[in-house]
Amino acid sequence: MEPFYFGKDSELFGMYHMAKGLPRKHGILIAGPLLNEGIRAQFALRLIADRCAALGYEVLRFDYAGMGNSLGRPSNYTIDHWQQDIITAAGELADISGVEVKTLLCVRFAANLAAKVSQSLRFDRLLLWDPVLTGGDWLAELREARKSLPKLLLDSGGQDDEFSGHVVNPDFIEDLVARDISGFNTESVFAVISRDYRREDQLRRFSGNTTTVESDCRWRTGASEVLYPGDVIESICSQLT
After folding, report:
1. pLDDT tens, residue by residue, 170-228
2. Reported pTM
């Protein structure tokens, strides 16, 4: 596993997991969730990346601009910028590995970002974990998650520009509610959903290749919990064997 910075002004932080054993000449880009969900999912995504690298895949996972170990603050960036980060990361993985990036693993709202760029990047497969198809749904969940925060982490003054300590761009909410990929349709979409997923009927119209597991990831109410859903990890990795 190799940490490094890349992109314009080296603002993006990435973790490159080099293929081990017999290389498949196949790159996998992992686009994690945004804001606090990205922090919660880091451990699980590292396990997935390690498993995939052990299977012979070249893997890159990264932090969006203004989040995690990347430079800047969330308030300095827009949803469109984070969408562009996926394109930048895909190009970086191709450059450092020398292989074609064929699979994009997206978690939560990253599915919405990826659907907008997948056709231009021509991934062979989109693999989704608990995807959020519409921005309005995610905004409702972000607001619901506030209710479970410890008192010291409650948003000050009830401001609607802060979610679990992440202050967002003034245009964030307006841009978010305008995002909707529920009409997107391709045979190359595979999804793994946990027990508390609320939009299964909508998702099955989006993707006919959906697997439901027993884990309850509690995206809406577990704002301070690190995710370790073993059956989700196993199901995602089994899609790649």
Report:
1. 999 999 999 998 877 666 889 999 998 988 888 887 777 899 999 989 898 777 788 99
2. 0.94
Q: Where are the domains of the chain?
A: 2-238
Are 67 and 35 within 8 A, CB to CB? yes
Q: Please give the Cα distance from 41 to 107 (Å, whole number).
A: 9
Q: Residue 54 corresponds to which tokens in the numbers above?
A: 């052990």
Q: Are strands 2-6 and 12-17 parallel, antiparallel or unpaired?
A: antiparallel
Closest by Cα among 47, 58, 215, 25 to 130: 215
What span, in angstroms and rounded, lies between the C-alpha atoms of 143 and 141? 5
* C-beta separation of 200 from 193 below 8 A: yes
At 162, the amino acid letter reads E
Helix extents (H) in the chain: 35-54, 79-97, 110-121, 135-145, 172-177, 200-206, 230-238
Amino acid occupying residue 86: I
CA 205 – CA 184 distance, rounded (Å): 9
Going by C-alpha positions, the residue among 95, 134, 142, 92 that lies closest to residue 113 is 134
Tell which CATH classification among 3.40.980.10, 3.40.50.1820, 3.40.50.10490, 3.30.70.141 matches the domain 2-238. 3.40.50.1820
